[in-house]
């Protein structure tokens, strides 16, 4: 297995992998935005320009077996701590094709993304794990964090 940086001319592959992740969660086709692929492509391109985004491919027997992307985390609140003390990186879209799973590819891609985030000065890496991904990320050293969520769903009456 070889891990290499994805080139901009390969962005469509990354788009496909990202959509396959959402498919694997059971997302019905009608839930996707009509411009989903264009939105992902724009996110990737803007991320390269503004958030130091990097994407990686795992190559096995000459085939792209999986991918992962990472970038500087876009904070939802004003950052007041100096970046050398607190600079978050975010890993997203860790994907391995079905035929290549259970071979350590997700682990290798995640480690490559962590190395990239370290190289750009990040002090912490953040990832949101699926149930299947959680053991992989724990093997890298990720720990559960204290994020809390509240589902905001309208009641049955429809107000």
UniProtKB/TrEMBL annotation:
Pfam families for the chain: Acetyltransf_1
Cited Gene3D superfamilies: 3.40.630.30
Signal sequence segment: none
One GO MF term: acyltransferase activity, transferring groups other than amino-acyl groups
Transmembrane segments: none
Keywords recorded for this protein, A-Z: Transferase
Residues in N-acetyltransferase domain copies: 1-159
Top-level taxon in the UniProt lineage: Bacteria
Name of the protein in question: GNAT family N-acetyltransferase
Organism in which the protein naturally occurs: Rhizobium vallis
